[in-house]
Amino acid sequence: MILARVMLIMCVAATALWPRAASGQDPFKALELTRPARTRAANDFTVASLDGKQVRLGDQRGKVVFLNFWATWCRPCREELPAMEWLYQRYRDKGFTVIAISVDSDIVAVPPFIKQNQLTFPIVHDPKMALADRYAVRALPWSFLIDRKGNLVALAIGPRAWDTKPAYAVIETLLNSR
Predict the structure, then answer these.
(1) What is the pLDDT of residues 23-75, one digit of tens each?
(2) Which residues have C-beta within 8 Å of that of residue 155, sequence separation ≥ 6?
(3) Taking the mean position of all CA atoms in its chain, how far away is CA 83?
(4) In angstroms, rounded to a whole number, what is the distance separating the alpha carbons of residues 78 and 83?
(5) Which side of the chain, N or C, has fewer Cβ within a 10 Å radius?
Protein backbone atom coordinates (compact mmCIF):
# COMPACT_ATOMS: atom_id res chain seq x y z
CA MET A 1 0.00 0.00 0.00
CA ILE A 2 2.81 2.43 0.89
CA LEU A 3 4.64 1.53 -2.32
CA ALA A 4 1.50 2.26 -4.36
CA ARG A 5 1.13 5.68 -2.70
CA VAL A 6 4.80 6.53 -3.31
CA MET A 7 4.42 5.51 -6.97
CA LEU A 8 1.28 7.66 -7.28
CA ILE A 9 3.03 10.66 -5.71
CA MET A 10 6.03 10.21 -8.03
CA CYS A 11 3.77 10.06 -11.10
CA VAL A 12 1.85 13.16 -10.03
CA ALA A 13 5.10 15.02 -9.29
CA ALA A 14 6.61 14.03 -12.64
CA THR A 15 3.48 15.16 -14.43
CA ALA A 16 3.46 18.48 -12.61
CA LEU A 17 7.14 19.14 -13.37
CA TRP A 18 6.99 18.25 -17.07
CA PRO A 19 6.44 21.41 -19.17
CA ARG A 20 3.18 21.24 -21.07
CA ALA A 21 1.56 23.22 -23.81
CA ALA A 22 -1.35 25.43 -22.83
CA SER A 23 -3.77 22.61 -23.66
CA GLY A 24 -1.94 20.22 -21.30
CA GLN A 25 -0.50 18.37 -24.28
CA ASP A 26 3.12 17.20 -24.45
CA PRO A 27 4.94 20.15 -26.10
CA PHE A 28 6.80 17.81 -28.49
CA LYS A 29 3.43 16.54 -29.72
CA ALA A 30 1.95 20.05 -29.78
CA LEU A 31 4.72 21.06 -32.22
CA GLU A 32 4.34 17.77 -34.12
CA LEU A 33 7.98 16.91 -33.57
CA THR A 34 9.14 13.39 -34.38
CA ARG A 35 11.06 11.69 -31.59
CA PRO A 36 13.58 8.99 -32.57
CA ALA A 37 12.77 5.44 -31.52
CA ARG A 38 16.30 4.99 -30.15
CA THR A 39 19.06 7.31 -28.99
CA ARG A 40 21.48 8.27 -31.74
CA ALA A 41 24.36 10.73 -31.68
CA ALA A 42 24.17 13.61 -34.13
CA ASN A 43 26.71 13.44 -36.97
CA ASP A 44 29.60 15.74 -36.14
CA PHE A 45 30.68 18.26 -38.75
CA THR A 46 32.91 21.27 -39.24
CA VAL A 47 31.92 23.94 -41.73
CA ALA A 48 32.74 27.61 -42.26
CA SER A 49 30.22 30.24 -41.21
CA LEU A 50 29.49 33.17 -43.49
CA ASP A 51 31.95 35.30 -41.51
CA GLY A 52 34.72 32.74 -42.08
CA LYS A 53 34.76 31.16 -38.61
CA GLN A 54 34.81 27.39 -38.31
CA VAL A 55 31.65 25.95 -36.75
CA ARG A 56 31.98 22.43 -35.35
CA LEU A 57 28.94 20.68 -33.94
CA GLY A 58 31.11 18.78 -31.44
CA ASP A 59 32.19 22.09 -29.91
CA GLN A 60 28.56 22.68 -28.89
CA ARG A 61 28.53 19.67 -26.53
CA GLY A 62 26.88 20.77 -23.28
CA LYS A 63 24.42 22.99 -25.14
CA VAL A 64 21.03 22.30 -26.65
CA VAL A 65 21.44 22.75 -30.40
CA PHE A 66 18.74 23.68 -32.91
CA LEU A 67 20.08 22.54 -36.30
CA ASN A 68 18.09 23.95 -39.21
CA PHE A 69 18.46 23.36 -42.96
CA TRP A 70 16.99 26.18 -45.05
CA ALA A 71 17.30 28.30 -48.21
CA THR A 72 16.46 31.87 -49.14
CA TRP A 73 14.19 30.66 -51.96
CA CYS A 74 12.15 28.51 -49.54
CA ARG A 75 9.12 30.53 -48.42
CA PRO A 76 8.35 28.45 -45.28
CA CYS A 77 12.04 28.78 -44.31
CA ARG A 78 11.91 32.55 -44.67
CA GLU A 79 8.78 32.63 -42.53
CA GLU A 80 10.16 30.53 -39.65
CA LEU A 81 13.68 32.01 -39.39
CA PRO A 82 12.56 35.18 -37.54
CA ALA A 83 10.82 32.97 -34.93
CA MET A 84 14.04 30.98 -34.59
CA GLU A 85 15.84 34.26 -33.89
CA TRP A 86 13.39 34.98 -31.05
CA LEU A 87 14.02 31.51 -29.64
CA TYR A 88 17.78 32.06 -29.91
CA GLN A 89 17.60 35.44 -28.17
CA ARG A 90 15.44 34.01 -25.39
CA TYR A 91 17.67 31.02 -24.54
CA ARG A 92 21.20 31.63 -25.85
CA ASP A 93 22.47 32.67 -22.39
CA LYS A 94 21.02 29.48 -20.89
CA GLY A 95 22.95 26.93 -22.96
CA PHE A 96 21.03 27.01 -26.26
CA THR A 97 22.26 27.72 -29.75
CA VAL A 98 21.00 27.65 -33.31
CA ILE A 99 23.06 26.58 -36.30
CA ALA A 100 21.28 27.42 -39.54
CA ILE A 101 22.59 25.69 -42.64
CA SER A 102 21.81 27.43 -45.91
CA VAL A 103 21.64 25.06 -48.87
CA ASP A 104 21.44 27.92 -51.37
CA SER A 105 23.58 27.01 -54.38
CA ASP A 106 24.78 30.62 -54.61
CA ILE A 107 25.79 32.47 -51.45
CA VAL A 108 24.95 35.88 -52.96
CA ALA A 109 21.34 35.95 -51.66
CA VAL A 110 22.17 34.86 -48.11
CA PRO A 111 23.94 37.91 -46.55
CA PRO A 112 21.22 40.42 -47.61
CA PHE A 113 18.56 38.07 -46.21
CA ILE A 114 20.42 37.76 -42.90
CA LYS A 115 20.82 41.52 -42.65
CA GLN A 116 17.18 42.23 -43.56
CA ASN A 117 15.92 39.78 -40.91
CA GLN A 118 18.56 40.71 -38.32
CA LEU A 119 19.57 37.10 -37.75
CA THR A 120 22.37 36.78 -35.19
CA PHE A 121 22.76 33.02 -34.73
CA PRO A 122 25.51 31.12 -36.59
CA ILE A 123 24.73 30.55 -40.26
CA VAL A 124 26.80 28.24 -42.42
CA HIS A 125 26.67 27.40 -46.12
CA ASP A 126 26.24 23.92 -47.63
CA PRO A 127 25.92 24.67 -51.38
CA LYS A 128 26.52 21.08 -52.53
CA MET A 129 24.22 19.70 -49.81
CA ALA A 130 26.92 17.36 -48.52
CA LEU A 131 25.92 18.02 -44.91
CA ALA A 132 22.23 17.87 -45.81
CA ASP A 133 22.85 14.43 -47.33
CA ARG A 134 24.63 13.25 -44.14
CA TYR A 135 21.49 14.23 -42.22
CA ALA A 136 19.16 12.70 -44.85
CA VAL A 137 17.43 16.05 -45.48
CA ARG A 138 14.76 15.63 -48.13
CA ALA A 139 12.70 18.82 -47.80
CA LEU A 140 13.02 22.35 -46.46
CA PRO A 141 12.89 23.51 -43.79
CA TRP A 142 14.22 20.48 -41.95
CA SER A 143 15.23 20.89 -38.29
CA PHE A 144 16.82 18.76 -35.61
CA LEU A 145 16.98 19.31 -31.87
CA ILE A 146 20.13 17.95 -30.26
CA ASP A 147 20.44 17.52 -26.49
CA ARG A 148 23.37 18.54 -24.29
CA LYS A 149 24.97 15.11 -24.76
CA GLY A 150 24.98 15.44 -28.55
CA ASN A 151 22.04 13.12 -29.20
CA LEU A 152 19.28 13.75 -31.75
CA VAL A 153 16.08 14.11 -29.72
CA ALA A 154 13.55 15.57 -32.17
CA LEU A 155 12.97 16.25 -35.84
CA ALA A 156 10.74 18.81 -37.54
CA ILE A 157 10.02 18.37 -41.22
CA GLY A 158 8.49 21.60 -42.45
CA PRO A 159 8.02 24.91 -40.65
CA ARG A 160 7.04 25.28 -37.01
CA ALA A 161 5.93 28.16 -34.81
CA TRP A 162 9.15 28.43 -32.83
CA ASP A 163 8.03 31.55 -30.95
CA THR A 164 5.18 29.87 -29.09
CA LYS A 165 4.63 28.38 -25.62
CA PRO A 166 4.99 24.77 -26.85
CA ALA A 167 8.34 25.64 -28.47
CA TYR A 168 9.52 27.34 -25.28
CA ALA A 169 8.43 24.29 -23.28
CA VAL A 170 10.37 21.95 -25.59
CA ILE A 171 13.56 24.00 -25.29
CA GLU A 172 13.15 24.41 -21.52
CA THR A 173 12.65 20.64 -21.17
CA LEU A 174 15.89 20.02 -23.05
CA LEU A 175 17.77 22.71 -21.16
CA ASN A 176 16.65 21.23 -17.83
CA SER A 177 17.67 17.67 -18.80
CA ARG A 178 21.17 16.79 -17.73
Answers:
(1) 567 999 999 999 999 989 999 999 999 888 999 999 999 999 999 999 999 99
(2) 33, 34, 35, 36, 142, 143, 144, 145
(3) 12
(4) 10
(5) N
Cα–Cα nearest to 125, from 144, 101, 106 = 101
Cα separation of 83 and 168, whole Å? 11
Nearest alpha carbon to residue 81 among 138, 158, 162, 156: 162
3-class SS at 163?
coil
Which domains are assigned to the chain?
Answer: 2-176 (3.40.30.10)
pTM to 2 decimals? 0.85
Q: What angle, rounded to 10 degrees, do the helices at 75-91 and 110-117 form? A: 50
Per-residue burial over 90-99, b = 16 or more CB atoms within 10 Å of its CB, e = otherwise = bbeeebbbbb
